[in-house]
Amino acid sequence: MRYLRRKLVFYLIAVWAAVTLNFLIPKLMKGNPVDAILAKTQNMTPMSADARHALEVQFGVTHDPIWKQYLQYLGNLAHGRLGLSVSYYPAPVSKVIEQSLPWTVALVGTATILAVLIGVGLGMLAGWRRGTWPDALIPSTTFLAAIPYFWLALVLLYLFGGLLHWLPLNSGYDVDTTAIGFNGPFIGSALYHGILPALSIVVASIAGWMLGMRNMMVSTMAEDYVVTAEAKGLRPARVMLQYAARNAVLPSVAGFAISLGFVVSGSIATEIVFSYPGVGTTLVAAVSNADYPLMQGLFLVIALSVLGANFIVDLLYAVIDPRTRQAA
Amino acid sequence: MTIETQADVTGETVPVVVPRTRRPGWRGLLRSGKLRAGLGIVLFFALAGLIGPLFVHDPERVSDDQLFGPSAAHLLGTTNTGQDVFKLLVVSSRGSLTVGLVTGVLATLISIVIGVVGAYVGNRWDEGLSLFSNVFLVLPGLPLVILVTDYLGSRGAAMIAVIIALTSWAGPARVLRAQTMSVRGRDYVDAARVSGEPAWRIIGFEVLPNLLPIIAAQFIFAVLGGILTEAALAFLGLGGSGSWGTMLYFAQNAQALSLGAWWWFVPPGLCIAVLGAGLALINFSLDELINPRLRVPRDKANRPATAGTP
């Protein structure tokens, strides 16, 4: 139980850090969103004090002391109020995020799970039988791991979309013939459009999982309990899965945070390549439109999603590694 | 066979049996094919970035040869404004490498200060600093970098490198912390402390030399991370420091993909991937230096599990 409590405290602190960072960065860098918008739009005509005040009220800019602004910001967050989007004006930021988030969660979620399963599986085989074909693949994974996600996406898109015409060139679903909703044609179309983006994320991220698992597997194979299990004459499959892999997989699970950060970062540019209607495309659009409230909201949602996913993995860790429960 | 200690997943120090393999010295390491390949690749790109731009005349020059495929006149074809892709590639290598190098140095320095010093001093400092780095570790990097670069308004190469370094030191710091914890408890460090050596001297002369292979590995990863992040930023139109990512950005904006101009967008990414593979290959050999179990025994049929039993 202490493990759980410690993790909970840690994630609460991490959430607080993300929220506060999100509040502080704009405050430290520039005056306020109104100034920023005026600077970006290069508004040459001088603005009347009234018009400026109206803008300030709309975007929640006040001249209160900073602690008061901070409390206001926290209060707004607690009510789910993220302000108004500039580029989708007058839509609230939360509405815009609501539309893009499911796309990214589905895409990145599926791709990550696939990459973990395949990568850890191959890494297990490579470590189990060193010198055989899966192990011979290991040095080539260095090349795969170094490929920029979005470039791989470009190349795959060129091959399968441009040259072979097997898969669609862009977007998340067929905009002309289907409507978003829980219906067969839309889901089919979304899956069909998701193949290439998911494939590029899986291929680009699989190498890291594979290498980590293979190295841990090699280390675990030298442990006494594996030797004992072999000496007892257990079936090789049982030794591999129940004795070696089960222990070797722990660091991969513990290292999930780092990998997920990479995948999320990588998927932002991947979404741009495919014009995928997810969080990444929205974030880049927000940046180019100087939509500061939307940028802040998106960063917060991305950070909180990554934290949430990691929290779940940490809970899982307590289940698969009894030592964490006992040691705590 | 030797008995060593190693921190296991719960952070406890456990004795492990290490199969007898000769620890390769730095010279022995050079005989490894992986390391030589890696060093060769990295050296090639380093030279290209260092002296290549001196031999390339006027890479930005536009001409009427628009979107030509690779030919003798233009080794890698031309862009939509008639610029020579090969020349751009050579000149851009400098931008990418500079950002990678600066990021690597900065991120490594920060991670040494936070990871090593925190773990050595211990107690509250350690707890505070490791909480700090763990929080940074779970915050997604690229979105944060995008936010900061945009608010700063500066998109120069140096600024980008600093921002990337400030968001990417946490992983290495955690690795260094774990290793420092294990070095800190060793006898010779205790001996130095008892004989009254100042803390900075113990860290500098007793602890750091033992962490050198790990620091080197983390540095290489940081360089690679810097190059990849910069490429992504530039590709999104947020970097613009004249790098391979910038080339990809212009290619994407000019619809190189639908125009079928593969010679425009394939080479920059391939350069990143090959350079990255070179860096990773060096790390691969460093890993084998750090962790003796990963060294492949000469006899391939001889698995380490059996080789290690008495």
UniProtKB/TrEMBL annotation, chain A:
Subcellular location: Cell membrane; Membrane
Span of domain ABC transmembrane type-1: 101-317
Keyword S-adenosyl-L-methionine: no
Pfam families documented for this protein: BPD_transp_1
GO cellular component: plasma membrane
GO biological process, one term: transmembrane transport
InterPro entries in UniProt: MetI-like, MetI-like_sf
Membrane topology: Multi-pass membrane protein
Keyword Transmembrane helix recorded: yes
Classification via SUPFAM superfamilies: MetI-like (SSF161098)
Main location: membrane
Residue ranges crossing the lipid bilayer per the database entry: 7-25, 103-128, 149-169, 189-211, 248-274, 294-320
Assigned keywords, A-Z: Membrane, Transmembrane, Transmembrane helix, Transport
PROSITE patterns per the UniProt record, alphabetical: ABC_TM1
Sequence similarity: Belongs to the binding-protein-dependent transport system permease family.
PANTHER family linked: OLIGOPEPTIDE TRANSPORT SYSTEM PERMEASE PROTEIN
Protein name: Peptide ABC transporter permease
Species per Swiss-Prot/TrEMBL record: Rugosimonospora africana
Organism taxonomic ancestry: Bacteria, Bacillati, Actinomycetota, Actinomycetes, Micromonosporales
Automatic annotation (TrEMBL), chain B:
Top-level taxonomic group: Bacteria
A Gene Ontology term for the protein's cellular component: plasma membrane
CDD domains assigned: TM_PBP2
Range of residues in the leader sequence: none
Keyword Transport: yes
Compartment(s): Cell membrane
Predominant cellular place of this UniProt entry's protein: membrane
Database matches in PROSITE patterns: ABC_TM1
Sequence intervals crossing the membrane: 37-56, 97-121, 128-149, 155-176, 211-241, 261-286
Occurrences of domain ABC transmembrane type-1 (ranges): 97-283
Keywords tagged on the record: Cell membrane, Membrane, Transmembrane, Transmembrane helix, Transport
Membrane topology designation: Multi-pass membrane protein
GO molecular function, one term: dipeptide transmembrane transporter activity
Record InterPro entries: BP-dependent_transpt_permease, MetI-like, MetI-like_sf
Family membership: Belongs to the binding-protein-dependent transport system permease family.
Name of the protein described by the UniProt record: ABC transmembrane type-1 domain-containing protein
Protein's organism: Rugosimonospora africana
